[in-house]
Amino acid sequence: MGALVTMLCIWVTAFCLASPLYIFRSLKTHNIGLKDMDSLSFCIEDWPIANGRAIYSLFSLILQYLLPVLVVVMAHVQIHRRLRGRRRTTRKTPAILIAIAVTYVISWLPLNLFNIIADFSTEPILEEKSMTITYAICHMFGMSSAVSNPLLYGWLNDNFRKEFEEILCCCKKRQITKDTRIKNRKMDTELTALAQIEHTVTANTKTSQCSQIF
């Protein structure tokens, strides 16, 4: 129940945090006067206060990056303290916790820095094409944290590695068993054919011997 309540609070907080991007927008229409296109409509951010976008980016930096980093570090410290006194705890456990925290910090840092610099600068920091490519790269870095965590668990955790090896070994065993069955079937077919040939040769030999006797 505690996990469900926590997840619900996270979703409500995320919805509230993203809601200004939906609320403070307006549809702008510009007359172009082209032959196939008279006007062009697009949605832009329309903040009610000056520097609204910069203020929103600053709050997003605090709530989406700094606060989660603090929570992750504190949670991992508590986990390490509780596991430190157990016998089964290995040296890899702190390494896994540190690697996850460092990966999260590194993955989301470029995107947050890019948003802060772009929103607080009075002039465009890059050209439109370069800015789009830079934003895409920073966004990919942030999304990569969802991929890196399973890889870290699989690489640094012996239990995960053993499970993967068992799965791979089972696949290999199944393939070997399948190949063995195919080979056995071929051998049975060949032996059956040889037996039939031997039976035919033996029968012909007996027939020829009988004919010679008579």
Can you walk through the features of this model?
The longest helix is centred in the C-terminal third of the chain and has 56 residues, at 158-213. Helices cover 79% and strands 7% of the residues. It has helices at residues 2-23, 52-84, 92-120, 128-143, 145-156, 158-213, and strands spanning 25-31, 39-45. With 214 residues, it is mainly alpha-helical. Among the domains are: 47-156; 170-204. This is Neuropeptide Y receptor type 4.
Descriptive labels:
214 residues; mainly alpha; 2 strands; extended
Q: What fraction strand? A: 5-15%
Give the terminus-to-terminus CA distance. 98 Å
Largest sheet: number of strands, sense, barrel closure: 2 strands, antiparallel
Counting DSSP H or I runs of 4 or more residues, the number of helices is 6
What overall form do the CA principal axes indicate? extended
Q: Encode the helix/strand succession as letters.
A: HEEHHHHH
How do the helices and strands line up, and which of them pair or pack?
Elements: H1 2-23, E1 25-31, E2 39-45, H2 52-84, H3 92-120, H4 128-143, H5 145-156, H6 158-213
Antiparallel strand pairs: 1-2
Helix pairs in contact: 2-3, 3-4, 3-5, 5-6
Give the gist of this structure:
This protein has 214 residues and is mostly helical. Among the domains are: 47-156; 170-204. It has helices at 2-23, 52-84, 92-120, 128-143, 145-156, 158-213; strands at residues 25-31, 39-45.
